[in-house]
Amino acid sequence: MDYSVQKPIWPGSSSFTSGSTPFGFFDADAVFRSHADKFAKMAAQTLGYPIMDVEMQAVNFYTAFEAAVVEYSNQVNQVNIVNNLFSTLGIQTGSDFLTNNSFTDALIGNSFGYITKLSKTYGTEADSGGNIKWLKAEVDVVPGQQTYSLRTAISKSLGIVLTTSSVEVKRVLHNPPPAIVRYFDPFVGTGLGSQQLMDSFNFGGFSPSISFMMMPIHADLLRLQAIEFNDMVRKSHYTFEIHGDDIKFWPVPTAGTGSSASSIFYNKVWIEFILDESKTNEAALFGNTALMRGVITDASNIPYTYQTYSRVNDMGRAWIFRYALALAKEMLGYIRNKYSSVPIPNGEVTLNGADLTSQGQTEKEALITQLREFLEKMTRESMITRQNAEATQMMEIYAKVPLKIYVG
Questions:
Q1: In this predicted model, what pLDDT tens digit does every residue of 225-283 receive, in sequence order?
Q2: Can the peptide bond before residue 177 be classed as cis, meaning omega within 30 degrees of 0?
Q3: Reduced to 3 states, what is the DSSP secondary structure of residue 75?
Q4: CB neighbours (10 Å) of residue 70?
Q5: Cβ atoms of residues 63 and 100 within 8 Å
Q6: DSSP at 402
Q7: 92 — phi, psi (to 5°)?
Q8: 230, 237, 329, 345 — which has fewest CB within 10 A?
Q9: Which tens digits make up the pLDDT trace of 154-176?
Q10: DSSP secondary structure string for all residues of 105-139
Q11: Would the pTM of this model clear 0.85, i.e. be above it?
Q12: DSSP-assigned beta bridge partners for residue 341
């Protein structure tokens, strides 16, 4: 659009073409193009044409019309964002998330997607799921050596070179004898402290005693836990410390004695870990906050675009026409304020620029307030409140319905 060419004031008609609006958000919409010229004619006649000259051109009316549709879309989308933000948190975004993947004109239901993603992130930390793969490396224990390099063990086990990469150790595992091999046959009774009980019933002379005593399975589980807990509290025979890249084991690895003199007391220790880069790229926990990248995080990147004008109903278009007219009044007021009066022979003409500016601003504020109050009634919270009130009233009405009395 070439604004340098001197054009006359409003000539009485216009012909909209693509590129006539500043941004061109709706220029491809056939209904918008048709209504742009109709609005220009309506606004000019409302402002006094043809009785009075209207010191505006078609592009001024088109600008006001586009700005009104943008403002309407902004107000509607604010309510949509409030309604749907929680249901869309954590959804992946992309380079075209404001075009092909826009939520405009889409119905969004309740979703636990964000909560699920958050749970998976916590699951990574709690060893109960998650998306990050745990890796495992082994430390070859040498008699007499107590401190080992985690980086060296991981590089050797996985065949990778760790330079600047950092790891987070999740578990350290060794291979003590499992508790079940230190547990006698649960059905024989020996070692369970129940032999005296069996003797009192004259069952002790029978071998084995499986014909007379059945132990519940939870008793076996409790005894296994007791053995492991005993080792952890009373013996504490395996422990470790991690400082930086070093892991230090207790007790100091030594060669066995007697029949196991050629073997090491514990010859291997396994390290389960994750790479910090995986947490950064996928989902890292810092305190109680889940950090996710490339997803919807707040109102600033939830993908809502401007409303499609051809799909806006008559109620919305009526608001747009009135708001665009208020903008046109304000714009004409600014134009006429440049010269508050125009000299004519034997007198002067006083222009109403200040009145038009004030009137346009007042009408804009009133229209915004009216639309906001209406849209606030459309929020999910407001609708649930109304639904609850309606249900309560219906219950009161039903309570007043007389009950029939049946005589048997």
A1: 887 777 666 655 677 888 888 999 877 777 655 444 444 556 788 888 888 777 666 54
A2: no
A3: helix
A4: 17
A5: no
A6: P
A7: -65, 140
A8: 345
A9: 888 888 777 666 788 888 887 66
A10: T-------HHHHHHHHHHHHHHTS--SSPPEEEEE
A11: no
A12: 350
Residue 336 half-sphere exposure, CB side, CA atoms within 13 Å?
24
Q: Prior bond to 253 cis, omega within 30?
A: no
Task: List phi, psi (to 5°) of 18.
Answer: -60, 130
CB 335 within 8 A of CB 55: yes
Contact predicate 327/364, CB 8 Å: yes
Q: Which two tokens stand for residue 230?
A: 């005993």
Q: Rounded to whole angstroms, how far apart are CA atoms 246 and 151?
A: 8
Q: Which residue has the tokens 């389960």?
A: 272
* Closest of 179, 154, 178, 186 to residue 167, by C-alpha: 154
Judge whether 290 and 126 are in contact, CB under 8 Å. Answer: no
* Contact yes or no for 54/47 (Cβ under 8 A): yes
Residues 323-353 as b or e (16 or more Cβ within 10 Å = b)? bbbbbbbbbbbebbeeeeeeeeeeeeeebbb
**Length of the chain as a residue count:** 408
In the structure, how many helices (H) and strands (E) does the chain have? 10, 10
Rounded to 5 degrees, φ, ψ at 253 are -60, 130
CB 50 within 8 A of CB 267: no
Residue 12: helix, strand or coil by DSSP? coil
334 CB contacts (<8 Å, ≥6 apart)?
353, 357
Closest CA to 284 of 89, 127, 130, 94: 130
φ/ψ of residue 274, rounded to 5: -130, 155
Strand-pairing partners, residue 171, are: 272
